[in-house]
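User: Please fill in residues for this 347-position structure.
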């Protein structure tokens, strides 16, 4: 349905940004901070990209970096999602005005098309275009892999992740991405193996800690799941999504009162900052309060929360899969078809 062939074997050989050396250094520093996948990291990355643009207004990768920061703010529930998608799209288009062949801008636009409009076709077209423009850019393969996993095309996603890892073997994001892919299709031993590799690269990486927690939940090692998630919350800077994962683990482990405390914590935080509806939805799932969880998922759809892109394949949603309201939500997300791939041993 989505398969396309790349049209060029030489486009990726074009030179990358070769402008001001100081601007380029600031851009690379920004990408390092952005790679940490925490609110603090995104803020530091934003500052670096802004400094790079101040040095050279024609530093298109830094403009695309700003787009990625705003999109990440939306994805992790730091700001209202629709605001993030609008700002990210504007900046990505601005980057393309400077360099129309910039693959990072294509990926930013792909994310906005997906999260704001659930346009899976356009998202894949832009991801493939980014790979066509620079087949050696790991982040393009990584986003495409995530898109494929969200659609349930696990083997294809794992193949793209293998390409991303070959291009950037020291990236904890890529390594954890492989772990997440195995987690989504139920290969928990392989997921654990990849998490251990990620810890060798970054011992307290937030996404790896969260993945370890969810694997432990699936294996009914609930106290261990809580312990992993407590570390994830600390290393995320007490992010609301982190609290949502922690409340889910507590609820699944029968620690109902503690899970409700996390719900209260989120309600209090909501008086001070934006809170993604996914965070309380996760806790209600852990408490087996499925109608309330669906209410929050409906709110997430209304605000175009990016996490809904995982609705088809996210294991904690399994208890909802036969419910008419959930099936309706899948239809609204253009995710209602059956899983399209059987999985095999890829990585």
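Assistant: Residues filled in for all 347 positions:
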């Amino acid at each position: 349905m989505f398969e396309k062939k790349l049209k060029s074997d030489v486009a990726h050989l074009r030179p990358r940004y070769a402008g001001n050396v100081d601007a380029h250094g600031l851009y690379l520093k920004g990408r390092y901070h952005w790679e940490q996948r925490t609110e603090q990291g995104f803020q530091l990355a934003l500052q670096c990209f802004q400094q790079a643009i101040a040095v050279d207004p024609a530093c298109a990768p830094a403009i695309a970096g700003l787009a990625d920061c705003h999109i990440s703010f939306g994805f992790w529930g730091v700001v209202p999602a629709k605001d993030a998608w609008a700002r990210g799209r504007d900046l990505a288009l601005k980057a393309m005005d400077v360099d129309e062949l910039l693959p990072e801008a294509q990926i930013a636009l792909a994310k906005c098309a997906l999260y704001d409009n659930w346009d899976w076709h356009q998202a894949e077209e832009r991801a493939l275009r980014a790979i066509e423009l620079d087949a050696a850019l790991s982040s393009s393969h990584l986003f495409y892999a995530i898109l494929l996993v969200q659609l349930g095309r696990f083997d294809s996603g794992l193949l793209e992740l293998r390409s991303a890892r070959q291009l950037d073997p020291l990236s904890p994001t890529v390594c954890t991405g492989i772990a997440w892919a195995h987690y989504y299709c139920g290969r928990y031993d392989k997921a654990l193996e990849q998490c251990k590799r990620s810890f060798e690269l970054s011992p307290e990486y937030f996404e790896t800690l969260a993945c370890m927690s969810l694997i432990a939940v699936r294996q009914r090692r609930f106290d261990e799941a809580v312990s992993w998630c407590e570390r994830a919350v600390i290393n995320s800077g007490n992010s609301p999504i982190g609290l949502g994962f922690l409340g889910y683990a507590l609820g699944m482990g029968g620690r109902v009162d503690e899970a409700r405390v996390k719900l209260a914590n989120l309600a209090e935080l909501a008086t001070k900052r934006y809170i993604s509806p996914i965070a309380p939805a996760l806790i209600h799932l852990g408490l087996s309060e499925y109608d309330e969880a669906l209410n929050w998922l409906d709110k997430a759809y209304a605000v175009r929360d990016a996490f809904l892109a995982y609705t088809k394949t996210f294991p904690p949603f399994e208890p909802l899969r036969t419910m008419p309201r959930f099936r309706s939500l899948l239809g609204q997300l253009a995710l209602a078809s059956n899983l399209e791939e059987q999985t095999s041993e890829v990585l």
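For context: The domain at 204-334 is CATH 1.25.40 (Serine Threonine Protein Phosphatase 5, Tetratricopeptide repeat).
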